[in-house]
Amino acid sequence: MMHYPDLHLYIAGEWRKAADDMAVLSPADEREIGRLPCASRADLDDALAAADEGFRVWSRTAPRDRADVMIAAARLMRERIDEIAAAITLEHGKPLPEARLEVIRGAEFFEWDAGEAVRTYGRVIPSAQGTRYSVIHQPVGTVAAFSPWNFPMSQPARKIGGAIASGCSIILKAAEETPAGALHIARAFHDAGLPRGVLNLVFGNPADISGYLIPQDQVRLVAFTGSTAVGRHLTTLASQHMTPVLMELGGHAPVIVCDDVNVTDAAVMSANRKMRNAGQVCTSPTRFFVKDSIFDAFAQTFADHARKIRVGNGMDKGVEMGPLANGRRIEALAELVADATGKGARLLTGGERIGNSGYFFQPTVLANVPDNARVMQEEPFGPLAIINPVGSLDEAIACANAVPYGLAAYGFTHNAANVDRMVAGVECGNLSINTLEASLPETPFGGVKSSGYGREGGTEGLHHYMTVKTVSHFMRIDPANKGTEE
Asked: Which one of 282, 427, 428, 456 is the catalytic residue?
């Protein structure tokens, strides 16, 4: 059995246990694999004080020096990939190759943000002689960040990378279900020489920790990835203290499939991507709107391929899809399937739990799903795809926009006019054509409507972690030589 790390809080550059703890369970067999320390109020107070001091030091550290520490931490993560990936698979269940890719993606986030750290340029605004207006960017302060369970490494990396590259300090509350990824990030930064207090890692009850941290004067930004419902609650709490937020919330990604594509290629690619991470991805392609002339072929090919996907323990060789996060996800998916089929949807494959041990669920495909089915509005967050026929591109765009979410959207077409109409008409923060990749370190990522506010990644990724200061400088003019006096 692969090793699972001994879990600790990380506060003020030191590792500590806590008086209270909780079990970390393997979703593959439901056994306990570790004990998670739960931060007390005293621990949180220590983290706030440490972050305050860490910000004082780190905000005055040269961007080039910040970047060097980030690059060193990323290098350590790459060197430790086997150990980190195994821990992620044990606690999350995803296949080991996917866990390895996630470690690499986390390192890439730090490498990209390290490069951006030295490019947070300001500007000088043209003005009259003797007057200078300049605009500079400064780190916002201490960040209270909250990361979800579905990507234990890459989601914490996004927030840590943006904060540290900008010169901020950060208190990260990582997911209690999947804590090892964030723990390994903290270890890498500790070993890379990050000053005390710049990064603090805590675990525990999400509502208790967010309710205590967000109102504190030291906290100058709240960064959250998770459900829209929780995001709204945290935004409301932050607004009571005039604290800005960065919110990456839920999605219900549409896929528009036009009739000028290779049906088999599009369907197989879509089935593979839909089942990645057991469908537990906010950008997961879920609502497929397929031109009616190719609908039957696309739906059948998609279902046939989904049926062949090997589901099992992520540690086993050849497994393509692991378990869901917990038993609640199984119940939620079963309810959505029952509701849809009860209202006339066709179940092409799947729809049931696999076995009685572990949280495994069949890759599931529903076709001809009516608009009044719950799954048409509710994000399933699991291995469930919806495939419906449409008569035109206009109808497909209208269907794509018929939810309160707007995070990721996808299209398959080789017609430039179709692409132009999708770009103009689909309401989303990220649109991908002929690819199902929605997020890269070098591209800004975020949503519209109920899918959140702000962007992570790309050159825009550091903007929310910084404030804009305008400096107006009036200089006396020396009448003798028309120069300026210092």
From this structure: 282
